[in-house]
Q: What sequence folds into this?
C-alpha cells in the first residue's frame, strides 16, 4: 500500500514589500503568499505560537491550491461580526477554517459543518484535530 504524503506548504522569507508591511504590522504573524508560508520576523510570538501560525497559513495554501477543500459552510452571525472587514465571504470562510485547524479560538464557536471541513483539511495536512464546541449545523 503506498504511503500517503501529507500536504506541506513551502516556507519562504518575506519580500521587501512584505517586510515593510510586517514591520508596520507586527500583529500580523504571517501570511500565505504565492503558494508559500511567510512568517513575520517582527512578530513577538513565541516559537510555539509561530508553529500554530505555520499550520494556519499552510491550511490557507492548501485551500488555495485544492478547490475541493475550500469551505462552503455558513458563517454564524457572531463570526460575521467578528470578521467584518476581512474581505469576501469566501475569505472569511478560509480564515475561519484555517484558524479552527490551527486551534486558534479567535475563529469563534465552530458549527458542525465548520469542524467537518477543518477535520478534512487537518487530515490531509497530517496534523491532529480536536473539534471545538459547536454543533448544530
A:
Amino acid at each position: 500500500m503506498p504511503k500517503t504524503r501529507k500536504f506541506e506548504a513551502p516556507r519562504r522569507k518575506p519580500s521587501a514589500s512584505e517586510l515593510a508591511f510586517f514591520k508596520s504590522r507586527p500583529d500580523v504573524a504571517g501570511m500565505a503568499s504565492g503558494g508559500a508560508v511567510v512568517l513575520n520576523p517582527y512578530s513577538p510570538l513565541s516559537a510555539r505560537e509561530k508553529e500554530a501560525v505555520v499550520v494556519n497559513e499552510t491550511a490557507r495554501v492548501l485551500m488555495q491550491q485544492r478547490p475541493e477543500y475550500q469551505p462552503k459552510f455558513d458563517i454564524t452571525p457572531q463570526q460575521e461580526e467578528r470578521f467584518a472587514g476581512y474581505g469576501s465571504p469566501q475569505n472569511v470562510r478560509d480564515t475561519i477554517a484555517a484558524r479552527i485547524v490551527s486551534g486558534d479560538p479567535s475563529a469563534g464557536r465552530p458549527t458542525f459543518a465548520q469542524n467537518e471541513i477543518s477535520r478534512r483539511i487537518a487530515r490531509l495536512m497530517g496534523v491532529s484535530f480536536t473539534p471545538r464546541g459547536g454543533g448544530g449545523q
Summary: Residues 47-65 form the longest helix (19 residues). The helical segments are 16-24, 47-65, 77-82, 89-102, 112-125.
